[in-house]
Structures are given as C-alpha cells and as structure tokens.
C-alpha cells in the first residue's frame, strides 16, 4: 500500500508543528525520515498512524483516508513509537498473544504467528521472561514484534534501534530491509549512517517543512559545490609541485594536507573537473601519481546545510 500525504498541517495554537507538507511513499520502499528535534517528524508519523487528526490536509493509506476512516487505516499499519509502551508486568509470550487478539488474528493462526515473530525478532531465549526483566534492546525487539504481528502492509518505525548494541542494530537493519521489499516503511532515526544503510530514499523535515527529498546519493550530489580531490604525487619538491598545480586553469585552490606527506587537497574551479589536468601534468613531468581520491559530501553535511538555515 502506498502512503500519500497531501498538504498536511498540524497546529498547536499559533504554532505549526507541520506546515502544509506533501509526499508519497511507494509499496516496497523504505523511507528514511530525518529532522532535528522539534522539526515535525513525530507529529507527521502520528498523523499517518491516526494518533490524532490533522488540522488540515489528509493522509491516505492505499485509498483509505485517515480523516474519514481512521479505524480502517489502523488495520493496515504497524507502529513502533519512540516511547515503545509495553505492559511490563506481562511475560513476552503472553503480551504477544494479547496483541494478536487485539488485532483480530484468528485463534487457529495465533500461535504460529507469535512463534514466527519470536523467531524473526530474536526473542526465543526471552519469550517466557517478564518484559520488566528485559534489557532495553530486547524491549525494543518486543515492540517491533507487536508492530509486525498482524502482518501490516505499512510499517511506521520511530527510532527503532534505540538502545540496541551494534550487533543488534545490524540484525534489525537487515530485518527492516527484508520487510521493506514487500511493505511500505517509514523509518525515523537520528543515526544518519543507519538511514543511509537501510533506506531507499531520505526525506528531511525542518521547522515543519520538507527541505530535502531524494536518495542519499542524490542529496550528496545536490549539496556538492566545487570538486574536491585528495592527491598524492611523488617526484617534485613541494614548491615545484605547488606552483605547477596553481598554474592549471581548472584548479581554484591547492593546499597540503597536515600529517600526510606529499598529499594535497585540490579544489577545482566552479563547474570544472581538474582530474585530467592533474593526471596530464604528472605524465608530462614524469611524476608518480600515487593517489587521486574524490571527496564526497557526507550525509551529515547535507543534513546540517538544510536544517541550519
């Protein structure tokens, strides 16, 4: 099922937590939803999951409107909120039975579905423990199991790897990627590397408005200015090399990198690439080109650029 957000606005008094945003998430797509604290991420996710009605605009899950048929929408959505509310006095297995019953899973199918969730979410050794006895990481797994138990077409995950160790993060990341092949997934996270590794597309929201939308590669390319190269050249002395590079018209600036003997940072003139010119210079002077490394804009830089304006 696709998620279609149309002109969504949510006001709290005079403040607009979400300000007239629109976007679509297609079936089989994992969307990374990023933004600083207070940007409107959680508000948007709560509107999608029918936790409250928008002030204006609409969200459709497939062809079902959250404003017209919120109860119908809930049957198609699995939601793991950041707070991960659980009944901590219940054993894991009893809690999952309870959630399965709430979602109307037929009695004959419940046990099989619960055991499947226990296996998928890595809860086999913990299933008979009280939830209060679990570590934060295992509680997060229980939260993910309850979000998946009714096999929803849409999955909304707000900070799903909070409290997990590095190995668990990798496991949950792979699980989300597998799920994302056949479901529609929105994943909110503060861990940019996790979003880049897990998500097909990234949407960044700031002050209630969408400020960037695309793949990680597209966002990096759009944020890149002049080409930057880290280059290693052996043969000439420093002054000779520096002066020769400065004479190349396609190069804007040259600087030696601290702690890397013979390595330079070369910034190309706007709209130009200096790679061929640097290579030809080395061939002409019989210098040894030991490295030529293009420096990409990091996703962290993209995030700062669009959220600090």
Helix content: 25-40%
Helix and strand content put the structural class at alpha/beta
Number of strand segments:
14
- Give the biggest beta sheet: 6 strands, mixed
Compute the separation of the termini in Å: 35 Å
Shape: elongated
Average of pLDDT = 89
Account of the 3D structure:
The protein has 309 residues and is an alpha/beta fold. Helices cover 36% and strands 28% of the residues. The protein has 11 helices and 14 strands. It has helices spanning 41-48, 70-74, 92-102, 107-120, 136-148, 166-180, 192-198, 216-223, 238-246, 275-285, 299-307, and strands at residues 3-12, 15-25, 30-34, 56-61, 64-65, 77-80, 154-158, 184-188, 201-206, 209-214, 228-234, 251-256, 263-268, 288-294. The strands form 3 sheets. It has a 6-stranded mixed beta sheet with strand order 6-7-8-3-9-10, with helices on both faces. Helix 3 (92-102) packs across helix 4 and helix 4 (107-120) packs across helix 5 (136-148). The radius of gyration is 25 Å and the shape is elongated. The model has no long low-confidence stretch (mean pLDDT 89).
